[in-house]
Write a structure and sequence with these properties.
alpha/beta; TIM Barrel; eight-stranded parallel β-sheet; two-stranded antiparallel ribbon; 43% helix; globular
Length: 296
Amino acid sequence: MTRYLLRLKDITLDLSSRTHIMGVLNITPDSFSDAGRFMPGGSADCGMAVEAALMMADDGADIIDIGGESTRPGAGLVTTREELARVLPVIQGIREHSGVPISIDTYKSKTASEAVAAGASIINDISGLGFDDKMAGVAYATGAAVVLQHIKGTPDDMQKDPHYDDVVSEVAAFLEERAGKALLAGISRDRIIIDPGIGFGKTAEHNLALINRLDVIAGLGYPVLLGTSRKAFIGRLTGGAPASDRLEGTVASSVIGIVRGANIIRVHDVKAAARAATVADAILKEGLMAKTFRDA
């Protein structure tokens, strides 16, 4: 097994020791799964969001991923000013109470820069450094780690009949090219994570193929983040279950992803995912766990 050490500003995570959990915290009025939860009445409730983040950390989240702009299909654009107004108070509030690593979910370089200055240490870019020419430079200058995600098109048009000749090989080629761009920008290899972008310009069939053959993505030699949580393909497979009722499908797809090589799973339901990952890790490392049980 390849050992991956993810170097953040003030901590190093050993992503090979076990599956790490990234908890989702959307500070938006129009998220596909928890729309308006932390924006009652249209304005952000910082205290409620910080409390939720701290609870996720207690439940087993290794990283809190904060987003101030929905990237669901057809979501409206948010200005940088509004995005910052939503996320910065939450980042600062978490930092006052916890040292849990924070990821900023944005494709805007200014938002990324200010979020890292406020306490984030990972930039989670759905475009893989592709939407903002300054993003690679910001990641290098700030010393942040980066999640390079695959997307086909933009959030506005990505689900309008996406087509691939071979989705797995094409996504792998994209991620390899983006990682190469990051390296050329000076971002060290131990600060790079790749993500196949489940649901970002893919049909349900594309998503299933990517999860089932995630070992191809893992074979590129970078730690892999997988985000299937509450995605539409799970609803389609489970008789039209709404986003709030897709826990079992999220857990199942995440565990298959772990078996295929995912190092980090990005989820809304942290406690259930963390417990499932613990069991999956134990099964995959059964020799080590057997010794632990004998020695206990």
